[in-house]
Amino acid sequence: MTQAAPTAPCRLQINGEDYDADLPPSVTLLDLLRERLGLTGTKKGCDHGQCGACTVLVDGRRVKSCLMLAVSLPDAQVTTIEGLSRKGRLHPMQQAFIDFDAFQCGYCTPGQILSAVALLEEGHIRSREEIREFMSGNLCRCGAYNGIIDAVEHVVAQRQRDEAGEAA
Amino acid sequence: MNVVSANIGQSVPRIDGFAKVTGQATYAAEPHPPGLLYGVIVNSLIARGRIEAIHDEAARAVPGVTEVMTHHNRPHTALFEKSYVDGLGVPGSPYRPLHDAEIRFNGQPVAVVFAETFEAAREAAMLIQVDYERWPHNADFDAALHQKYMPSKTRSNYVPPKSRGNASEAYALSPVKIEGRFHLAPEHHNPMEMHATTVIIEEDGALTVWDKTQGPQAVQAYLASALSLSGKKVRVRNPYVGGAFGSGLRAQHNVFLAALGAEMLKRPVRVTLTRPQMFTHVFRPEAVMDIALGADRDGTLQSIIVEGVTDTSRFEHNMENVVVWGLIGYKCPNATADYKIAPRDTYTSSDMRAPGAATGVNLFEMAVDELAWACGMDPLAFRLHNYSEIDAMHNMPLTSNALREALLQGAERFGWNGYPPGPGSLRDGRELIGHGMATGIWDAMFSPTAARARLTSDGRLHIATAASDIGTGTYTILAQTASEAFGIPIDRIDIELGDSTLPECPTEGGSWTAASAGAAVWLACQSLREKFLKALAKSENTPERIKQSEVTLTEGELHGVRDGSREVFSLQEALSFIGEASIEAEETAKPGLRDKISEMRKARFTHSAVFCEVRVDEELGIVRVTRLVNAVAAGRIMNPKTAASQVRGAMVMATGMALHEESLMDERYGRFMNHNFSEYHIPSHADIPEMDVLFVDEKDEEVSPLGIKGVGEIGMCGTAAAIANAIFHATGKRYRTLPIIPGA
Amino acid sequence: MRSFSYSRPASFDEACRVPERTRFLAGGTNLIDLMKSDVERPAHVVDLKSLSMDQIEELPDGGLRLGALATNAGTAEHPLVTGRFPLLASAILAGASPQIRNVATNGGNLNQRTRCHYFYDPDMVCNKRSPGSGCSARGGRNRIMAVLGTSESCIATFPSDMCVALAALNAVVRLRGPDGERAVALRDYHRLPGETPWIDNVLQPGEIVTSIDLPSVSFGEHYTYLKIRDRLSFAFAIVSVAVGLDMESGVIRRGCLALGGVGTKPWCVPEAEALMRDRPPSHSLFRDVAECILEGAVADRDNAAKLKLAPRVIERALWQAAEGTPQSQTCKTIR
């Protein structure tokens, strides 16, 4: 017990930047981001996978970073809210969240946004009902749910218009 | 951001939006000073007794652990109990963290482990063993009801019920009557951000404390007093707060323990509660209300009798205004109410969104619905017939009351067509459809508040006040206020909040911030504008042609008009004429003599009318809320977009209150057992339908300087009752306990 | 979470040779949660993810082999699964949240532990967590607890949705351990608590779930996964029912039925299923089936409502299956 905790190598790409260090294996991806890398945009709302505030993208898929050991993701590509906007330009989902007042306190917001960005790729966006069901892993205590669904629907419609435009 | 107009009343997007959607907004657990230590709290596993021994050897042996702080080795704190009274001022004997060996509630902190890493602190906290001497306890609410009492000293905001007529005689004589015991389960606030504190030690030894609170100045005063830090500079910051709903009204133990740890170890410290630990402090009290109502056959209310009890701890007397709402809002000639509190061995219950009214209005409006049906009357017609234009309990007129318009406009928007067909008559497939409605009421409050406005040489206007934006939209509406008051575009305004060193502002809560801080910012900007124009007129460097012009300030520019010709200057230029790098004004908005007279003569409330559709699969015990309309009369609406979000947010919480939320006390241990988001169910996306919020026009120059009443709580009041009443309409069954779990 | 060592074995044989106090890590969505709650205290965590067991393959009989490391989401969205076993896809989508399903694995789902409040709180006595210490769920706040398969020592519910469908589908769990490979029927994989509630299943030390085999079925649209819970999404079941019916000209040739949320393991009673053989759907039949599968159910302090609710959910689910109108996991109306 008095021995130093054993470490294991952790090799990741976070928002396009390499991260390579030896870590105690008990460090979660969430705590790595928040406490060791200063990427506090990823939020801790429960630390048990029950709220969605810590949602990030790992290899493009949404996950709850509080339930992942940082050392268990060799060569994974991690995208956090800090990596979503490019050169100060907001991702359309971020802009839609502002436009539709899709948050109040802002604490669940990065997780909601990343979840919604992943949802677009997953394609469970055929109706408001479906969007609601597939966003239900992200809780919001301020109750900004109407605005969030409005924002997602708006981006879905925007994309469909863009795709139709490209096709034409 | 495409701002068309930034004036008051416009739907301006949140000015803090960019920071929040990019992850740049910094919350309490997020500053990272060098040398930061992590503190993890260890909680008592018994509800009452005393600590016999704390075995911390194994914890101390974990590499990286620097200290285990307990009541044995903690630094000196204030000697007198009164030094620990926080801003909320609940009468009784305040809980003092790590004060001594006595355990007063399950989950009470017994130790804090500090370590170089979060992982080490978390592990070491698991290794602490505590021996207890167990004393008998009671955590059962029903048992506590036998010990209900009225404390000799009441909370300062307590409104004693005032009887009129002879309610029991009128009840006996009423041809139509209902009576019953209504119950609300205890609830936890559960903001998404867990309570946390980061203490930074500045070079001069001063403490900068980032805390999740609704009142940085209240926490500052509490720390200075309780930790006897009067000789030391303490600054409390909370620029972003991840929700609170009342959980940040009191200084929570995390801030005390973090500051104490920083004092002890002379190191910066972070203490974050876990989600289970969020169930070891404040919660909305459990409540029962015995309500008896009597009416004439034509639906004229004749008698109101309310007896209410809410729970408190064994050491503090927390009180709420739960029994008065029906007496205030209905013009009934005979009414009486009684209120008591019941002690149990838990932490002290506390204010949660719309404290008192969330309980009292919702349970009372469920009873009113029962009476309306008993009279064979449309519940809407019943309200229109019986609601009071004045504060019927104090027999005082109101500064304004647009409840009638709210009822009518809400009904129209919802499509409430007169007397709804009898319970259980609307069906779609397996589902019964029900419509229900209720009225809502909440105080419109105003507290003295100061704000500072400063114009700087870059042409930007800086506004500062120690208000907190807990998601309420305060940043945005204050920017709108400043924009209009000073005459400058909103994108040239910086708002600084959440810092105890800023001009004095009361703790955020009770829906008073918009009215109070808004008025202060308005005054400060007006004052600055006058001061600026005066200085301009006086300065030697101001060109004569300007001095002889009629000068106005609009859209962030100075316009000088003389002989029909107009000259425009930038604010930067104008400041250079005065020869100052900046110019500032600070003002305090407080009730004047006229306002004080008004407060004695008139009561002030927000009102609402809520309409709801539910679908109930009775056989399977499933209730779905499918439509909600809320018509709100809240005076002047600063920003319809953010105000509607406020109301919707409260309606979501009220949906939880009606259908899901219940903290399950295991009275054998005195612990709330569903202490996580997996088993304490707040509504999810799937539970929430489209919610239609409309604001009823209500001009009220008297209620507060800007005519604002506030919108933070009103959405809680009535919404849960409307859902419950809709469930009755769907099923024909009355549920008198919230949350309603049909079949459970 | 207590300190532990972490390793990523290169082969099965390496993985199987594990010291005492080892836990295998797959998705980790339950294990890491439990370690943070100080319920699981492994000294060694062996990460299986580098072992290639994430395939979904066809079996010669038309069934499927689901790799133990395939994710729940990957399984539920896989065309072979949605095409041949929509019941399984539906059950998976009824569980947890999209983020969890993206990480949680099929093998991990089998081995997840109970949702009991008292098991999760290390301050409470619990026979499942600490053998012989007692059961604080009995007589406590136990609305969510089991009414079937309970014992004096434990009333904890088995939490999975996926396993309920797997039980209805008569899935077979394939294991590999130091002593070679074996196969166990899913219905026999989980154990009743009895006097040893700390042993959840038949897995032996060093043994690993490698895949789950689904024998071919021909339910067509005659299936459903019906889940009743306290909120409309992202909550554990109060009662859930997985049904698949082999129907021919309006007659049930074979009925498969399993319950979740009510048992200490996925709950199946072959006699209840046998009642449906060669019978047309009817209210009386489905009532008998419900009565049979719920036989012996007993409530404790707070969960008597499950006794009333369960037969209704069973009958409703049987009708959904009989009529070929499976429950959507998106639309919250229940036919």
UniProtKB/TrEMBL annotation, chain A:
Keywords: Iron, Metal-binding, Oxidoreductase. PROSITE patterns: 2FE2S_FER_1, 2FE2S_FER_2. The keyword Oxidoreductase applies. The keyword Iron applies. InterPro entries: 2Fe-2S-bd, 2Fe-2S-bd_dom_sf, 2Fe-2S_ferredoxin-like_sf, 2Fe-2S_ferredoxin-type, 2Fe2S_fd_BS, Aldehyde_Oxdr_Iron-Sulfur, Beta-grasp_dom_sf. SUPFAM superfamilies: 2Fe-2S ferredoxin-like (SSF54292), CO dehydrogenase ISP C-domain like (SSF47741). It comes from the Bacteria. Residues 8-84 form the 2Fe-2S ferredoxin-type domain. Pfam families: Fer2, Fer2_2. This is 2Fe-2S iron-sulfur cluster binding domain-containing protein. It comes from Acetobacter musti.
From TrEMBL, chain B:
Residues 22-136 form the Aldehyde oxidase/xanthine dehydrogenase a/b hammerhead domain. Pfam families: Ald_Xan_dh_C (PF01315), MoCoBD_1 (PF02738), MoCoBD_2 (PF20256). Gene3D superfamilies: Aldehyde oxidase/xanthine dehydrogenase, a/b hammerhead, Aldehyde oxidase/xanthine dehydrogenase, molybdopterin binding domain. SMART domains: Ald_Xan_dh_C. This is Molybdopterin-dependent oxidoreductase. It comes from Acetobacter musti.
UniProtKB/TrEMBL annotation, chain C:
Keywords: FAD, Flavoprotein. The keyword Repressor does not apply. Pfam families: CO_deh_flav_C (PF03450), FAD_binding_5 (PF00941). Transmembrane segments: none annotated. InterPro entries: CO_DH_flav_C, CO_DH_flav_C_dom_sf, Diverse_Substr_Oxidored, FAD-bd_PCMH, FAD-bd_PCMH-like_sf, FAD-bd_PCMH_sub1, FAD-bd_PCMH_sub2, Mopterin_DH_FAD-bd. The keyword Plastid does not apply. Residues 1-219 form the FAD-binding PCMH-type domain. This is Xanthine dehydrogenase family protein subunit M. PANTHER family: OXIDOREDUCTASE (PTHR42659:SF1), XANTHINE DEHYDROGENASE SUBUNIT C-RELATED (PTHR42659).
